[in-house]
Recover the amino acids of this structure.
């Protein structure tokens, strides 16, 4: 059976491979783990994302008049009521199905 010891002429090859591996592992470290940063090295958000001058010059939209707010509120309530009305039959059917299933289970438990 062969021995696991490296042959004398290949021993230096293993040493060379290990030294290459050590060199490669040094290059794999992320820069943040090997370098220190000062506060001046970290950019500000305003330096990365430019501000649009046009947005600053535009005034905010005026507040809606009271009658328009009330009208929008009324319309929103009507839309919500339509959605509820559309789903009520589905909700009732699901509740009925669940109640009937529950009733059958309860009756099955109490049968002699």
């Amino acid at each position: 059976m062969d021995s696991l010891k490296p042959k004398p002429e290949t021993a230096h090859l293993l040493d060379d491979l290990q030294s290459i591996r050590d060199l490669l592992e040094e290059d794999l470290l992320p820069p943040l783990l090997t370098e220190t940063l000062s506060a001046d090295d970290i950019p500000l958000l305003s330096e990365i994302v430019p501000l649009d001058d046009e947005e600053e010059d535009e005034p905010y939209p005026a507040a809606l008049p009271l009658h328009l707010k009330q009208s929008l509120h009324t319309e929103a309530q009507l839309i919500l009521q339509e959605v509820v009305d559309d789903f009520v039959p589905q909700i009732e059917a699901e509740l009925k199905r669940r109640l009937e299933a529950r009733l059958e289970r309860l009756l099955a438990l109490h049968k002699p």
